[in-house]
UniProtKB/TrEMBL annotation:
<dbReference type="InterPro" id="IPR043502">
    <property type="entry name" value="DNA/RNA_pol_sf"/>
</dbReference>
<dbReference type="InterPro" id="IPR051320">
    <property type="entry name" value="Viral_Replic_Matur_Polypro"/>
</dbReference>
<dbReference type="InterPro" id="IPR043128">
    <property type="entry name" value="Rev_trsase/Diguanyl_cyclase"/>
</dbReference>
<protein>
    <submittedName>
        <fullName>Glycerol-3-phosphate dehydrogenase [NAD(+)]</fullName>
    </submittedName>
</protein>
<dbReference type="InterPro" id="IPR041577">
    <property type="entry name" value="RT_RNaseH_2"/>
</dbReference>
<dbReference type="Pfam" id="PF17919">
    <property type="entry name" value="RT_RNaseH_2"/>
</dbReference>
<dbReference type="InterPro" id="IPR000477">
    <property type="entry name" value="RT_dom"/>
</dbReference>
<dbReference type="Pfam" id="PF00078">
    <property type="entry name" value="RVT_1"/>
</dbReference>
<feature type="domain" description="Reverse transcriptase">
    <location>
        <begin position="49"/>
        <end position="251"/>
    </location>
</feature>
Amino acid sequence: MRNTQCNLPDSVIKLDTKPGCCVAYRAQYPLAEAYRDAVNKQIQVWLDEGVIEQSASHTRFNHPLLVVKKKDSNGNYDMSKPRVVLDVRKLNSILEVDDKQQLPLISSIHQNIGNKTIHTCLDIHACFTSFGLDPSQAHKVSFTSPFSNTQYTFRKAAYGIRHVGSVVVRTLQNLLSDLNTSNAATPNSTKDDHSVFCYVDDITCSTSGSLENHFKLVAEVVRRLTKANLVLNLEKVVFAQRSIYLLGWSVIDGKLVPDGRKLTNIMQWPPIKTGRQLALFLGLMSYFRSSIPMYSRLTGDLDSLKQCKDLSKVWTARHDRTIANLKYALTNALVMSTPNFSCRFHLATDASLTAIGGLLYQVIQNEIRYIGLVSRKLSPSERNYSTTKRELLGICYSLERFHRFLYMRRFTLPTDHKSLIY
């Protein structure tokens, strides 16, 4: 498939460099002979799709190619299919542009699509390389083949240029933002409402009405993408489903639970021997902390070990139990629900000697629906607080974290610490 180029206004990538910075040349690193076929194949694909072209003249910009391991659908590294990428760190260091476009939070996406009943996920084919570079500046993204010594220049954006993601996100959001009619305050409304959210090159279309109206929404999204000269990757399209996988989570009928495929990777995590391995494990666990009660208390024994290069001298059976408890807590994580702003909120808080936390929930038709969990460790000075002050700190912290749900609303805050009610 030949790569197309987005024709929307402001979709062309500018590469303005800082005054006086007109050179970013780094020679190509030697690559293993085992990567020859993969590199040559990728270069040919780029040529066939019109992403690159042979450099017409000498340029003072050159960036080395790298070959990195690529993960398969199960999250394991597949050495048979390496990914060829461009090392543009030197170019990024001299770019004048500082474009930052905020990505939507997973909690915001869930709040808007969680109560919908039909979902479609679209993926744009080679999204980043569908955005063209300014022709007068394209020479700044050049590389030399390590096996043929031929220099090529990118005509379209390369992965790694620091502001390309911002341009892509803004362009797609501007293209589709008017297709959102979600009314989070009345999630049980019988009116047909729909939402379209973009997370980089992933587009999620959700409706709560009829299947026919869902088809109309998806057709409109596809029509706009086609008009913008953006092509879908049909292999990754998920059409008209009740449940979808979204950014590591599974969304179904207003519920949000960790993606079971991610849980398999965590349960099969190899023994932790270094601080770096521990940091990677805790980083993945932290992504799901909104479903794990008192996450900070559970990880209290581990956070201080992340800087240790060798854990063999400090690792004990207690740390093994903590890891096991974290895995158990994640596999039995709370099922989170979409908030119903027409119903009353309840906020439960707690404090221990080492951490504080809060749980926001609603009781609807005698069913408890969990909305959010927050927690954090206490600082050394906060650990010296009295019990009453720690409990109050937990309340204040939870109110701050759940401000967007509770502000200017009546809610219930149960407590077992009577002095706090005065």
